[in-house]
């Protein structure tokens, strides 16, 4: 496969979509991003990476970090996490409290905010430092030792974090957090604030295409576990649009309100696309269109 | 009306109910209360007070404080509070987040916890010290200068306050709190922790029977406002059982999980009954039965 | 009390409100009514009736019939009906299915459509003909033997009755209907279609002011039962606005989408007001304003 | 791949699970099925079929018919159906009315009952006879001209069909059905009542593994459409357990309360498994276990 040719064609195809949608507004640090950015990268299972557009420009990973958090907890703790978080699609907007109440403080899945707070809490208990553990992992996999938190973004998330504080206190009221609420929130916000490029993220996610093997050949997840992370990404990875994403793109994916999306073609490669304009459900307009066109050109949906 | 004779007959009638139900368990300070207590007091519009049983024994007022908080805010601020809190029955358990989310951070009424947090926030903005303002008012109306917060109860509420913290952060996320969340919570918990007897509470609530006039003859609420507080008590004052309370007792009332209930017979008197055993909806079993029998004996329901 | 003077003043006061709001649109027969009609009547406990405006013009009683249905079932069957329908405010729009599902087919109260279907079902089982039983009762109480169903309205309700059919089938699925769904629906629609004037309705509802005594002096309901119907009207009688109605008007009341409202001043009189323009919650704009002003002028709220 | 060997091993492996769970009880015709049945079949893209156990014994397809209904409508009508039904996981039990009300009569996806009623309605409008169209298609694809409706099952569904009648009337109230409610219900129940064996169903579903090509080589769906049906099956095909099914099995699948499940391995084969004991979410206990073991043995999950 000539990835460069495919990416060039994808970039040309989605050009009219770039700038459409709405850049995330809920924190100033994200609202200032140029809506007209677009980048895309493919990292294959041999670690070769190809890109187009703004593929080396860092952006805020936001909820994409949730996929790495889940993998790190599964790697250390196995299936035990499923006692504290479900793995069903939420059927509701990503920060809904309704389902959480209805299900007694057990979040529907690890990719809604409530679920990611539980995963962060567990990762913190397992490692003593959830956010640094994740940063170290992302540096190692991407081969980019410069990766860092963005303190301005983390502080801004915290300042506008009442909804997440509500979720965390709510679950604490059900006994579903082990660490103090402020600690969990802090590490959650730091994880979301990490700045990475499409190149970095595609490389960092390659273990999901390699059935669990890390960049250095060591095993993070068993083959079965890696498939399972992909399954959760496909059914729950794009907020309230997972069905539509599966329908249009047909790949496991995880999006973030920074405008990034990673997607996995098991056994072949991991993709990352970035464009800040979001649709009504919080996914990058040009990003989804790019992945849709990529699978159309290559025929590589999982279906 | 020979109140003493009526109260004696009520006490005899409900004797089999005393001890039934479940003492509130969510904080240790409440769980230790003797379930077999029962007291009842009537304060008429002339300030005469009559009682039976443990009517002079202090207990934790808990949510009964919400009725006084609403009156104090209406007295200072008029109808403006209704922009920030509704006045419809909740149709859901008293601490539900569902309706709050459905209605964009506007609590259904001032007597569910979320609504009382908004009222506390407003009272704090108006007075600079919500909990002391309430304590001073209750001391003045009851004529009992010994009334005090119970620091152990307030601390215990705070320790077990994740659900209320979730509600407060949730509303803060919608911009419906003016003061910092910890400040609002602290004053809310202090208000709930006040210790009062049936005698104290019946006297303190007499302004509601006197169409807004305080014990010293000064006016707290207009006639119209006093009626309206009674209306909100009747439709929303007993958690998810307001319809049943209206059906059985037929009086405006406000209950608390400490086992107390105040009820108002407009133009005549204010009642307070206390017995710690609660029914499944958080209202005193013997307390509701006593009020039911009182209205049966006197014929004094509002209907 | 000079009722004529009060009614004249009320009519003058609410004149600017007449024609405001929206005439019910869901069936053609209602949509054609002139929005500028206004009438009001008071029937005292001695059966004297006074009116103003269009008080002798018939209109479609719609949901006001629910209050009479409840009274007729209580009269024959006592408290047993409460096993099949609750008596708590709904906290949701009047035809919501959500709460019905949440509570396993037991409607929240007899004045939401689902609850009225259960009451109709029971009345039909008790009498063999629910709608004729109600018509006969209304004729007798109002002294107007000309009262009749409006077949066009009943047919129109049936043609647009999918939502009610859904409610009925839903409850049938839970075993909460004894008669076939089409039978229950038919009698429900016929009851709603009855045409009455303010004069007729005020007279027909006088038993609620007379503590259960009918126009001929015979007893329909015990004193206690009559109070209880009033309690349910106050907490549940005006759709999702019961709290607001209690706050503003302070009387037990039952409204219909035909624009009518009956209200009870226990021991004194029963009121009926009619004006077709509805607010967003289905209650007559001018009608609520008229009752509000009536209680302001007379001081006769129950609070 | 030696399918016979794999199926034999699967059958041996799941033997302890057979008989577990609960046979569907809501209609007598299903409740009488022997819980200890187990059959499984694989039909590859060349039309070769292999089976184990009771793989040639007919059972009631029930909701498996929903997958064929969707394919038949997409084949004739393209993407227009998505204006009337969503394609997001429901996040709620399969027959919930809550989400339907919340979303104004648009069902979440075509595989919950409400969504299948809309698909049936559309298929009926397109063909003049929804149930016969489906039966003819299933006969042709399975090569079994004996396939038939089970009138006893269809009648029994109808007798116990109040919940589905409620759903249909509810959507009709929103204008989301073109045909009369009784017609739509009748064809829906007939479709569900079709009796097929694992052999029949595996063959009938082979077009989904063949990227849209029918058994006779003609095209039913475009390659893109076939992928999309698979995507909807993966995200929505197993009631409220789609996330768990993706996690454990990793294949597009559609289950029915008769105990059958079909699953698709794109480009390779279609599977059908049957065992009547259901888990709490309505999926065959032994069936899910068999598919789980099949993908473990073959490594053929889509992830």
Automatic annotation (TrEMBL), chains A, B, C, D:
**Catalytic activity line of the entry:** L-glutamine + H2O = L-glutamate + NH4(+)
Q: Can you name one GO molecular function term for this protein? A: glutaminase activity
Its domain of life reads Bacteria
InterPro entries xref list: Beta-lactam/transpept-like, Glutaminase
- Residues annotated as binding substrate: 63, 113, 157, 164, 188, 239, 257
Q: Which NCBIfam families match?
A: Gln_ase, PRK00971.1-1, PRK00971.1-2
This protein is called what? Answer: Glutaminase
| Source organism (scientific name) | Streptomyces coffeae
Q: Which gene encodes it?
A: glsA
């Amino acid at each position: 496969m000539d990835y460069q040719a495919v990416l060039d064609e994808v970039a040309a195809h989605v050009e009219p979509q770039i700038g459409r949608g709405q850049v995330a507004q809920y924190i100033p640090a994200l609202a200032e991003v140029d809506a007209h950015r677009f980048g895309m990268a493919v990292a294959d299972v041999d670690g070769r990476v190809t890109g187009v557009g703004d593929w080396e420009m860092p952006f805020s990973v936001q909820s994409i970090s949730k996929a790495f958090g889940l993998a790190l907890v599964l790697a250390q703790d196995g299936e035990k996490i499923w006692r504290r978080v479900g793995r069903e699609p939420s059927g509701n907007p990503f920060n809904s409290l309704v389902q959480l109440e209805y299900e007694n403080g057990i979040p529907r899945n690890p990719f809604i905010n409530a679920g990611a707070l539980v995963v962060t809490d567990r990762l913190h208990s397992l490692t003593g430092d959830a956010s640094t553990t994740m940063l170290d992992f992302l540096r190692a996999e991407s081969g980019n030792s410069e990766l860092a938190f963005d303190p301005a973004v983390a502080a801004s998330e915290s300042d506008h974090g009442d909804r997440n504080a509500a979720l965390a206190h709510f679950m604490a009221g059900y006994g579903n957090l082990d660490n103090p609420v402020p600690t969990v929130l802090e590490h959650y916000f730091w994880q979301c604030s990490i700045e990475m490029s499409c190149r970095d993220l595609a490389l960092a996610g390659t273990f999901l295409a390699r059935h669990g093997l890390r960049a250095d050949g060591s095993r993070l997840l068993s083959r079965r576990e890696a498939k399972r992370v992909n399954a959760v990404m496909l059914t729950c990875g794009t907020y309230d649009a997972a069905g539509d994403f599966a329908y249009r793109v047909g790949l496991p994916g995880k999006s973030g309100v920074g405008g990034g999306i990673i997607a996995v073609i098991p056994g072949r490669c991991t993709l990352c696309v970035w464009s800040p304009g979001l649709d009504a459900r919080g996914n990058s307009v040009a990003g989804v269109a790019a992945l849709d066109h990529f699978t159309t050109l290559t025929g590589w949906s999982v279906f």
